[in-house]
Amino acid sequence: MTTPKLFNLTAAFISLSLFLSSSSADGATATSLITGTCKQTPDFNLCVSTLNANPRGPKAAGVQTLALIIIDAVKAKATTAYADLKRLLKTAPELEGPLKSCAEQYNVILTAEIPEAEEAVSGGVAKFGEDGMRGSASGADLCEDGFVKVKSPLTAENKAVSGLAAVGAAVIRQLE
Amino acid sequence: MADLRNPILPVADPAYIPIPDDDTTTNLGRRFSTRNYSNKLLSSLFTGLILVGLLLAMGNKKSTHTSIPVEEDKILTQPPMSRGKPLGVSEKSNQQLTMRDYEWNDMMLSWQRTAFHFQPKNNWMNDPNGPLFYKGWYHFFYQYNPNGAVWGDIVWGHAVSKDLIRWTHLPLSMIADQWYDVNGVWTGSATFLVDGKIAMLYTGSTNESVQVQCLAYPANHDDPLLLDWVKYSGNPVLVPPPGIGPKDFRDPTTAWMTSTGKWRFSIGSKIHRKGIALIYDTQDFIHYEQLNVTLHGVQGTGMWECVDFYPVSTTHSDGLDTSANGPDVKHVLKASLDDDRHDYYALGNYQEETGEWVPDNPEIDVGIGIRYDYGVFYASKTFYDPIKKRRVLWGWVGEMDSEAADVKKGWASLQGFPRTVAMDTKTGINLIQWPVEEVESLRLRKQEFKDVELKPGMVAPLDIQFGASQLDIVAEFELQKEVVLNSTTFDEEFSCSESKGAAHRGALGPFGILVLSEESLIEKTPVYFYIVKAKNGTLSTFFCADQSRSSLATDVNKLIYGSYVPTLEGEKYSMRILVDHSIVESFAQGGRTVITSRIYPTKAINENAKLFLFNNATEAGIKTSLQVWQMNSANVPASKSTKGGPKLDIVIFFSLLYLVLNFDQFCDKSLGFHF
């Protein structure tokens, strides 16, 4: 003996529940791949947030896609870092020494190590991808270490690249 | 953490006495002063010194020393430096996890290039490909990146040699110009067909990154240099079969002839975590049937790359053609494990009827047992040399420094010095590897040290009269017998990689040689034996190479490599070491265990690289005899005058005499040097 209003409400409630549960079921499948993969990296939260931020992340069918997403994210961070340091070379001439070393490092990261990682992971020879990511992490670390007596103006950028590249290496490791 | 009871060796120590020698010629130049003497007096003095020097040089072919004053109580106990912050990545990863760069300068970097190991002029190299001997030339192909010093854009490099040592680089033999290999012209092997023609099978990475097998052959079989290659128009000839992943199908082997008249070869792969070797039969290298069994597989080993499969004689040490078989033949199955970047092999029996290979000892099966090399050595491949009847092993020796340093120096990777491989007929359970005999053509001067005794805790500098960056060292060691018999330190658990390197003192070891070492030992690379005694008196020998103090740089590999090595009753402990700048190859007990190391000193380079003997055992003294050869560069054409030594010396002597006697004229003409 339901009134039309109550019927509508119930129908609405049931459809809403079905809708919510179905979308979270898809999310649960993708998330479990991301969760399982990210658990085996040194920074679970960074890994998960980076992968979820990319529309391809939650839909990824395998670890190779996740690895390529991380490599892309490293490239973005490194590109930003490089742009920042080029700007600083003009505005902070007193830091020329360490900034030039940083430029050398980021040049290697952007022109050699990231392309190496992309080609290797796409091609299924993961170990060279790992080399590329580890090299990128250490390049960012070296840039940071170059600021010996002064505070580094690139700490945030360097930590972003280093942390994410370390995650990338760990994700790629799971492809071997 | 430094152990304060045992401080680092001082740089200048009054007790430090270098080994005396007869040859003082090296000091003459430095002692020459530029005070203001008359030209005539000066020229006769100069003549006299030159004459003395030349006479000594001619007369002194080798120095023999029976006693060497040594430093008392100099103990090597610096612990290895920390290995860097762990990143939570699996411990199986071979390299340093955080490799911080160092300020590499041009001198340090240019020193790293080798004098007699295969490497292209620049850029990145990895796996050896299709090595073969054809119409008088040894051919070597290799994975190469023409665009940079890291892996990528892979094509086939090519070089030829008459002696496996002096190489002429040729144009690339194959580039990535087809849809089926546009993403990489990857590893492959050569097979000689019945009519002597060559079929080269290789892996292509397609435009969709699928791994497929492709056939190539020389464009002109009359060309001994095999400059041009043709890719079969119907490529690819093989694609990943059902059940095999599209990226788990690469590196076809040389084929062997079966009794049905078909060719058979193998390709490594994996099914889940089981590494396997697939097998295919073919009559024309165009049509293939996959056998429904694998040649072999081992659970838990992961992807098998660069599979190699070949026969060895159980009775003699000559090589065998890849198709050989018979009652006195065993087969070696080898795989490069993608997971840990090591090459493993096992001996066993090939059962042609079933198509399977069975290991002699499943406990040391492929991937879980013996390695060719306990250092840096991967993707190796053998070929049969029909001229010298030997099987020769090539292996990729990667860099152990940072990629940034590789980009800076403009190159990366070497090939190991080619080695013969054969069954160890004395043990029957392992192979013997030894540098090809042509290595001896590189030997120049020799110094010999006989019966040197070192008490526990001693280091003895070896006064080498030539540079210590290019050496061939052959050394034998004995422990004091009574000490060994009476020692009560038993059953120690030991592994090179988990020890403290040469600072790890035991009753009966470590003892050996320090290569690429700086005078004060602030940088040193120990290559050594460590003997462990069991309660029942039997001795176990371990052979290690310690990179932990090899360089002050923080971005190079600092691991300690090595393994147990079988030593038979009555054998002395013997090692051979090839030092060639940034590569050191160490062979124990005639090649039963081999360790390849990459060393990147910042100080122990050029004239500052030195050689030492050491005994860091706590109980036993050692006695050693060694020969040290100066090694020539392979880039210098092999000249006959290096063998006609005395004749050349006489020519130099008279030329200089002429010059000196006419010194006045030269000075009067003001050629620019004045005294």
Task: For this entry, give a set of tags.
heterodimer; A: 176 residues; mainly alpha; 7 helices; B: 675 residues; mainly beta
The assembly state of the depicted protein chains is heterodimer
Q: Give the tally of β-strands of chain B.
A: 36
Shape of chain A: elongated
| Mean pLDDT over all positions of chain B | 86
Order of helices and strands of chain A: HHHHHHH
Categorize the overall geometry of chain B. globular
Helix/strand-derived category of chain A reads: mainly alpha
Strand-residue proportion of chain B: 35-45%
Keywords (chain A): Disulfide bond, Signal
Family (chain A): Belongs to the PMEI family.
GO molecular function (chain A): enzyme inhibitor activity
Organism (chain A): Linum trigynum
What does the model show?
The complex is a heterodimer of chains A (176) and B (675). With 176 residues, chain A is mainly α. Chain A is built from 7 helices and no strands. Chain A is elongated. Residues 22-27 of chain A have low confidence and may be disordered. By secondary structure, chain B is mainly beta. In chain B, strand 11 (274-282) and strand 12 (288-290) form a beta hairpin. The model of chain B is unreliable at 1-37, 56-101, 640-645 and 668-675 (pLDDT under 50). Chain A: Belongs to the PMEI family. Chain A: Keywords: Disulfide bond, Signal. Chain A: InterPro entries: C/VIF1, Invertase/methylesterase_inhib, Pectinesterase_inhib_dom. Chain A: This is Pectinesterase inhibitor domain-containing protein.
